Amino acid sequence: MKINSLSGRFLILTTIFVVLAELLILLPGIATYRENYLLTRLERAQIASLSLLATDQSTIDPDLENELLANAGVYNVVLRRDAVRQLVLSSPLPEAISGTYDIRDASHWTRIRDALKILIDPENHIIRVVGEPVQQGGQVIEITLDTRPIRIGMIEYGLRLLTLSAVISGITAVLLFALVQRLMVAPIKRLVAHMASYSEAPEDNRRIIAPNARIQELRVAEDALADMQTQLTAALRQKERLAQLGQAVAKISHDLRNILTTAQLFADRMEFSEDPVVKRAAPKLINSIGRAVNLCETTLAFGKAEEPPPSLSRFMLAPLVAEVVESEQSLEGAGLVDFIVDIAPNLTIRADREQLYRVISNLVRNARQALEATGEHGTIEVGAGETRDEWWIRVQDTGPGLPAKTREHLFQPFTGGSRKGGTGLGLAISAELIRGHGGRLELMRSDETGTQFLLHLPQELSM
């Protein structure tokens, strides 16, 4: 049994409480024994005195006097009757009186203190004791006696009392310890054993704990654990099914991409056909196949889930944004969009250049496609700056804004797409890449006046 275990600590506390109980029993018991001892000596001394006074003799035989004092266990007896203080029995004192104790009105704590004073002093002393005579045999009676017999009697009585109370306390402690072991420690160990067993195979429903504790607090803990295990098992099974589905989708996307790539090659040739119907249909067919190929490639990229950790380096941001803008301007349909770059030429940040390029490119491309879908002229602005704690990059447009349903699941894959045929994977991947930098990507606003995203990169990266 380890000391830092629940059983070990309970055993220590039980021992401490048993010792305290022993002291609370022992000290008053010894004080009571001393008081009874002194009362007995006072009573014997009073009987001896009254026997002598009943003879009406002015003198007493020394041998008889010594015998009476020896039977009473005292040296002297002083009796006060009718306001007269009379030395009834006396014998020579071997030493001076060391103290006087009046037991008539002594408090409980005073009796304990006086008892301990005699108990801890191994030397013999002569003390005077003042008390009340029994049966109205006078007003006050005083005796002198040795402390050694009192001390010996207190020790013997204390040992007997200590042994008896120790046996009772020991039996009580054992029963209490066994009861706690059964009612508390054993259920807790069972709870821990269930947790360990469940962790070995969390997908196994048979390992979910069945709550049966009788103690309310433990029953609540078992109910909570059972609920958590049930939910976790269901989540793990769903995750496994999704993983299997993801593998299947990746395989299908891979094969479909190859098929669509071949179809795209043939569609490209159709553009050179002299048939006017084919000429009109070919661009639409090429665009549809292109979107399908892009969907397959994006799904494959997301399904790999192999994004490496960012390789941090310092570089100027303006040239990187210029590359993104130049790439977007070269695409068909970009003539309807004006690009504005508001970045200081010397602004230097620390990030993974390739990953940050992908993030900004995703945001700018989404904005361009949203503007192109309206068929109207629009503007995309990319700005950046820094504070004491972070760098920020802002991408905003004058487009129509995002639908409410899209904003609810903006950074979730396959649910946050805002355009027809979109998957939402671009924003999901971008948010994941920024989280890898210790930053965050957030939508600041999206309404009929446009959309604004703000990208935060911490200057002190904690990874």
Estimate the strand proportion: 15-25%
- Output the radius of gyration: 50 Å
- Straight-line distance between termini: 41 Å
| Number of DSSP-assigned strands | 12
Can you list the strand order of the major beta sheet?
2-1-5-4-3
The unreliable regions are none
Q: Describe the main β-sheet briefly.
A: 5 strands, mixed
Number of helices: 10
Helix/strand structural class: alpha+beta
Mean pLDDT: 80
Helix content: 55-70%
Comma- or semicolon-separated keywords:
ATP-binding, single chain, rod-shaped, 12 strands, 56% helix, coiled coil, 463 residues, alpha+beta, 10 helices, transmembrane helix, five-stranded mixed β-sheet, Heat Shock Protein 90, kinase activity
Question: What would you say this structure looks like, in words?
Answer:
The chain has 463 residues and is an alpha+beta fold. The protein folds into three domains: 6-171, no CATH class; 216-302; 309-458, Heat Shock Protein 90 (2-Layer Sandwich). The protein is 56% helix and 17% strand. The chain has ten helices and twelve strands. The protein has helices spanning 6-53, 62-72, 108-119, 148-200, 216-270, 276-304, 317-329, 353-374, 404-408, 425-436, and strands at 76-81, 84-89, 97-102, 126-131, 140-146, 313-316, 337-342, 348-351, 378-386, 390-397, 440-447, 450-458. Strands 2-1-5-4-3 form a five-stranded mixed beta sheet. Strands 7-9-10-12-11 form a five-stranded mixed beta sheet, covered by helices on one side. The chain is rod-shaped and about 165 Å long.
